[in-house]
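User: I'm putting together notes for a lab meeting next week and I want to include a structural view of one of the chains we've been expressing. I don't have a solved structure, so I'd like a prediction I can at least talk through. The sequence is below, exactly as it appears in our construct file.
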Amino acid sequence: LSNISFTDCSKHDPGVSEDTEKNFAELLAEELKLREAEAAENQKRADMALLEAKKVTSQYQKEADKCNSGMETCEEAREKAEAALVSQKKLTAIWEQRARQKGWKDGVTKSGAQLQGNVQSV
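Assistant: Thanks for the context. Below is the predicted structure for the 122-residue chain, given as structure tokens.
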């Protein structure tokens, strides 16, 4: 008896088989559409993330360019100030040499001499 029911079960019924195949195909098509929609949504999110990353990168690059430009400007100004200082030191040395030739001595200034005189007279 068990062999008979098993044989009955395994018999090919064209109507059932056709409906099953049709339903299976529909399920597969629906699954495929869902996966395509999910993939499209994932691609959309990835594209948006990439666009945002490009915007942020561009902002950082602009800031870096500004910083580099500022550093170059500062370096140029420092170099000019250094050159001006060297020039001023040379000029000061020339004036100091001339003053010494005229009798000027370190630590004695006109205002210092006046102060010493005022302190003595008090």
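A couple of points you could mention at the meeting. Residues 14-101 form one domain. The CA atoms of residues 71 and 77 lie 10 Å apart.

User: Perfect, that's what I needed.
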